[in-house]
Amino acid sequence: MVFFYIIGSTLAIGYLPWWSLGVVFAFGGLLFVKPLWQELLLGLLLGAALWAGTSFIISAQNQHMLYHRFVEGKILPLNPLLLTAILGGFHGLLGSLFGYMLGK
After folding, report:
1. Is 12:20 a contact under the CB 8 Å cutoff?
2. What is the DSSP-derived secondary structure letter of residue 27?
3. What's the sign of the alpha-carbon dihedral 82, 87, 92, 97?
4. pLDDT at residue 94 greater than cutoff 90
């Protein structure tokens, strides 16, 4: 089940727009009906890990130029990668919740 999320999300993020992560998590929540707390925790943690990992790879390809501008200019109160992980976690959580509710 976790491999479905990781492989599906990797393929979706690689070839589709940013919102495809939520679609994969909704589809996974529909296929693998689990208790609600497990679904939400899985969506939150995997969404944060996948989104932050993708963000880090893109940032590394650009020599972390935008990251350093945000940190040095004190534009964001948080670390930009941490903020990206939080947003990705919420995105995965909402996708999982939608799939769970659709399955019920």
Report:
1. yes
2. H
3. positive
4. yes
